[in-house]
Amino acid sequence: MTANAIAAGEGQEAAALLERTRETVDPELRRTVESLPGSMRRVAMYHFGWEDEAGRPTEGGAGKAIRPALVLASAQALGGPPGGPGGRGAVRAAVAVELAHNFTLLHDDVIDKDVRRRGRPTAWTVFGIPDAIITGDAVMALALRLFAEDPHPAAAAASARLAACVIELCAGQQADCAFERRPDVALDECLTMATAKTGALLGCACALGALYAGAGPEEVEAMDAFGREAGLAFQLIDDLIGIWGDPAHTGKPAGADLLARKKSLPVVAALTSGTRAGAELADLYAGPMDGDDVRAAARAVERAGGRDWAQAHAADRMGRAVQELSRAVPDLAAAGGLLALAEFVTRRTR
CB–CB of 310/239 below 8 Å? Predict the structure, then answer.
């Protein structure tokens, strides 16, 4: 079998797993979101793609479900039962992780001034900044309430772990914002920030699945490390898409991250490359940019080696992720779902 055929098979497996996750998680996710009062419910229902700005039902969805899929696949890989106290198994934990993720999206869109998400206007552009921020806060509170009401014996530990993860996420977001005001961001700093901002929640998702499967401390930490490494690979690919992604697929303008002068990983790799192209990129980032400048900046990142470095580093991080996974699941055949998801997020192009 060719490498392309293997990759296609893994992609199909991941797509099927994500679809099953949506079918399993969405009903509980929607019931939880619908419990919000008044205007917060309206903003959240719009953000999740279930309603339009007037409150009318839509055909939209709540995203790819990568993080809740990691929760459920991790629980399964470690022998977790399909049910559990109350018959819910790890579903509530999966919903809580998805809520926490969307809390960050609601706030990030405001901070980054992003006007498009999932192919339509972001919540803050429709309902205003105060309502978007307040709804994000409420969505995070819903995640913690789910654990407080969950009879599963792992719920308390899971709640504490998610809370610690959110603090780490906030630290990563704060560093990301600070980097935009600094001309001298080091690549190691950027990697640390990306691990906190993206890797932490993927690691937490895997750790929660392990907790709900009844795994011991060593297995839980190994699963967290797996998710963090895979999460950094995910962020590297996401940063590449932020520069070279197709707007028809991403729902954002071409080169949106460059226009916003984001210090993404490929950009910092280029800026610190010591090359002439890196110096050209620094000059472009120092002044106002139009469409031609954005295209010139993308070419500079590529000529300075930022694109190749990000692709190679993503592959390296996935290798490390598999090593961590083997500590918790020595027979990797039992972790087929996790490996398929990891391949999916690092091979995607949109």
Answer: yes
Cβ-based burial of 96 (10 A; exposed 0-12, middle 13-18, buried ≥19): buried
The three-point CA angle 329-211-196 to 5° equals 85
Give whole-number Cα distances, 274 to 61, 192, 269, in Å.
44, 21, 10
Summarize the confidence of residues 128-133 as an average pLDDT.
98
- Alpha-helix residue ranges (DSSP H) falling in the chain: 3-34, 38-47, 66-77, 91-112, 123-127, 129-148, 155-180, 187-194, 200-212, 217-244, 247-250, 256-259, 265-271, 276-286, 291-303, 306-328, 336-347
pLDDT at site 271: 95
Could you read off the pLDDT of 29-83 as tens digits, one per residue?
Answer: 999 999 999 999 999 999 999 999 999 999 877 788 999 999 999 999 998 765 4
Q: Is the pTM of this model over 0.85?
A: yes
